[in-house]
Design a protein that fits this description.
single chain, alpha/beta, Globin-like, Elongation Factor Tu (Ef-tu), domain 3, Rossmann fold, six-stranded parallel beta sheet, 11 helices, about 40% helix, about 20% strand, globular, iron, metal ion binding, FAD binding, FNR_nucleotide-bd
């Protein structure tokens, strides 16, 4: 809990600090990377650095955490903390790095805010930072314990590609088996993701997260990678490398699985909503439901540009057919000769019970629109869970 004195100072200065956070985080990253270039080798996604998403996500999480402390002083923003903790453990963040971040973040605040950052104000925001850092360090320790990770290196394991399948012109699936290492494998739950660490042509390592699209229950893992077509931009460098150079027999370095957007227990109705490559966690969930003989009511909704771009479409349709209480609806912007519904996803006329649990994955504008429709239909916001590819720019302002 934030002390009463600090809470008052944070409340009074939140508008000023919040307005400057984008500039603060930009200066923070520039200074930290200049003095710790090693962090760019296998830790930070330079695609997200280039497009500004990482900076905006950090600013949003700090402001969101501060607002939560002020608005609900007796509660912790567990959804925000859980999302960040899973991302951190998946890239190998260590406890000592919070000290490094603190040094450069508060140095940037001093430079940007100047005289507005009085000693009392700085102390209040310092309290916010360490409350957030302490909660994350504890959450990350719990996640590492569940995954059997003793230190930062234990998060990584080498896997061999045993099958490569071209799903669409822009999406390819890799089926992997562990090359070596201690047993058992870290547990995987449907809906979780892994980090893939690769060495780029310039010698630096880069990480990208890919949702497991299958293989969560045995000794294999499957990821389905969409090529990001941004010529020359770092956003697409890893997916391009995987598409162009990785074939059967190649080895990839994967993290243990993490992510908190997984179906809950019970037999309440389950709604799976996806668009584009957001279908990957839904495929894993459906595989798990089939393997467990689930009788749960399931409605799977998917939107895509056309049948040609619909990755895993036939596989997902086959899984739905194997579930006794499941059905699927597909929308294509260009349906061609298919029997899919034309245009964008529209929930009108669909029977969605009020106690439905919802899992969503896709572009943020798509998920925002669907969430608004679900709320209007009487679905509780606590029942709607979503996964994003990359830094979460939604949760801090929407939690």
């Amino acid at each position: 809990m934030l002390s009463a004195e600090s809470a008052e100072l944070v409340r009074r200065t939140l508008p000023v600090v919040g307005a400057a956070l984008d500039e603060i985080t930009a200066r923070f990253y520039d200074t930290m990377f200049a003095e710790h270039p090693d962090l760019l080798d296998g830790m930070f996604n330079r695609g997200n650095q280039a497009n500004g998403e990482q900076r905006r996500a950090l600013a949003g999480s700090i402001a969101g955490f501060a607002r939560a402390l002020l608005d609900h002083p007796d509660e912790r923003p567990d959804a925000l903390l859980s999302r960040i903790a899973h991302k951190h453990v998946a890239v190998g963040v260590t406890d000592d790095q919070y000290v490094i971040v603190h040094k450069y973040l508060f140095g940037a605040m001093t430079e940007v805010l100047g005289d507005a950052l009085t000693p009392d104000v700085a102390a209040a925001w310092d309290e916010v930072y360490w409350l957030m850092a302490g909660a994350l360090i504890a959450a990350e320790a719990r996640l590492r314990a569940v995954a059997g990770i003793q230190d930062g290196d234990d998060v990584w394991r080498t896997w061999t590609v045993v099958e490569r399948r071209q799903e669409t012109p822009d999406a390819v699936s890799f089926l992997l088996r562990p090359t070596a290492g201690p047993a058992p494998l870290p547990p995987a739950r449907p809906g979780q993701y892994v980090s893939v660490r690769v060495r780029m042509p310039d010698g630096l390592h880069q990480l990208r997260q890919y949702t497991l699209s299958g293989g969560t229950g045995g000794d294999t893992r499957r990821i389905t990678v969409k090529r990001v077509r941004e010529p020359g931009a770092p956003e697409g460098e890893v997916s391009t490398l995987l598409h162009d150079t990785v074939d059967v027999g190649a080895e990839l370095t994967l993290s243990a699985p993490f992510g908190d957007v997984v179906p809950g227990p019970g037999d309440t109705p389950l709604l799976l909503v996806s668009a584009g490559i957001g279908i990957t966690p839904m495929a894993a969930v459906l595989h798990d439901l089939v393997d467990s003989g689930s009788q749960r009511p399931v409605l799977a909704l998917h939107a895509d540009r056309s049948p040609r771009t619909h990755a895993l479409g036939e596989e997902v349709a086959g899984l739905i057919d194997r579930l006794p209480r499941a059905r699927g609806v597909v929308w294509y912007e260009d349906p061609g000769d298919s029997d899919a519904r034309p245009g964008r996803m529209d929930l009108t006329g669909l029977d969605i019970p009020a106690d439905t649990e919802v899992l969503m994955c896709g572009p943020l504008p798509f998920m925002r629109a669907v969430r608004a429709d679900l709320l209007a239909a009487g679905i509780s916001p606590r029942s709607i869970h979503y996964e994003v590819f990359g830094p979460d720019l939604w949760l801090p302002q929407d939690a």
